[in-house]
Amino acid sequence: MIQHFSYKPLFENSQIPGWSIRFFYEQKRYVAEYYKDGSIKFFGESPAEEQKEQLEKMIHELMLFHVYE
Questions:
Q1: C-alpha span between 42 and 47 (Å, rounded)
Q2: In whole angstroms, how large is the CA radius of gyration of the chain?
Q3: What is the phi/psi pair of residue 35, to 5°?
Q4: Which of 38, 40, 46, 65 is the most buried (most CB within 10 A)?
Q5: DSSP tag of 47
Q6: So which domain of life are we looking at (predicted)?
Q7: Residue 57 is part of which domain span?
Q8: Are 36 and 18 in contact (CB under 8 A)?
Q9: Does the pLDDT value for residue 69 go beyond 70?
Q10: 66 and 23 in contact (C-beta within 8 Å)?
Q11: Domains held by the chain: number
């Protein structure tokens, strides 16, 4: 489960889509950028390949809930 999820716009002009996201997953801290097309770019530590697909689904759901409501 994702914990302590936070996001903020990448650009001062909030009309330009793109967000910086931060969260904890399985006791590891992740930092990434979420783009309009749904792509996610991780910085620093990336999740293991077998976890990545499930984690990205959870991030998409959170972004739909918080940003695109």
A1: 8
A2: 12
A3: -110, 165
A4: 40
A5: -
A6: Bacteria
A7: 2-66
A8: yes
A9: no
A10: no
A11: 1
